[in-house]
Amino acid sequence: MLEPSGPEARDDPFLAPDPVAAGVRGARPIVSPLGTGDLTWDAFCDENPDLVPWCRARWLAALAPLPAPPAGLTESVHGLHQLAQHVLAPWRYQAHRRIGLRWTLGGFGTPFVHVDRQSRVTDGLLVRQSGDVAEGMTPSTLGEAAAWLGGPLGAPPESFTPASPADPEEPLTVRPDAAAWVGEWFGFATRVLEEVRVGEPDYGRRRVQLWPEHFDVSVELGAGPAGGTFGASPGDADHDGPYLYVTEWEKGRLAASEWRDPAFPGVSLPVADLLAAREQTDAAVAFFEHHRMLLERGPG
């Protein structure tokens, strides 16, 4: 299950129980998006076609192609990034001294903490949930957002270095259509990265997470010189728009790739190339798998 989030995991550094783990077989079958259970969500939808819209929205089965990003995405990405690093991550850190976020339906947010509490952004709305009650609002400033959630403003200095300062009076400009697209992008990326992750030996030691300081979804795969970070960004100062990427931990392992990126030690695939693919999910998985092979092969 990729979404909704499971409860907070207390015994390791991750967000929540592994969403695609094989689990313990029992009387009730385990349904997984990636074949790690007794039944895939695609097979489940074949038997229950009325669930197709629900599963498609959560990137579990019957996947739909990503639409093109809306105009004016960059300004909204900045506002969403500010909420991630200066509002949601501090809220989670206050609860359990962890900063990692995750994709949530329509956006991104924390896992459920203290069993039944979650803070998230959904289609541009800031949402606080306690139990079954969810409330949303559109904050006009960073300070208003933090105050409404009841958490601190600003990245905890001992946790990470933010990409930009926390100004309580900073206006938040987040268009709903742009925020919804970023939510779809993170959902797509989470599904793809989970698929790549389960091909890793002992894959349960790695998790896909959304890192607030970088505002990207990523997972670390491989070990030692053959390792790298595999991820998806909605755009940043060095790129015109969203992109998939792989960074190398040992310089030169990805030198043979045609997708080399001058902005960092690694490679990137622009969203335009991905949208042009006949099967976007397959193209993204192939991009990641190709570069995992290059990392394993090494220079030369």
Please summarize what this structure is.
The protein has 300 residues and is α+β, with helices and mostly antiparallel strands. It has seven helices and 13 strands.
Q: How does this model look, in words?
A:
- The chain is an alpha+beta fold and 300 residues long.
- The chain folds into 2 domains: 73-177, no CATH class; 184-297, no CATH class.
- It is 30% helix and 18% strand.
- It contains 7 helices and 13 strands.
- The strands form 3 sheets. It has a 6-stranded antiparallel beta sheet with strand order 8-9-10-11-13-12. A 5-stranded antiparallel beta sheet has the order 3-4-5-6-7.
- The radius of gyration is 19 Å and the shape is globular.
- It starts with 30 loop residues before the first strand and ends with a helix.
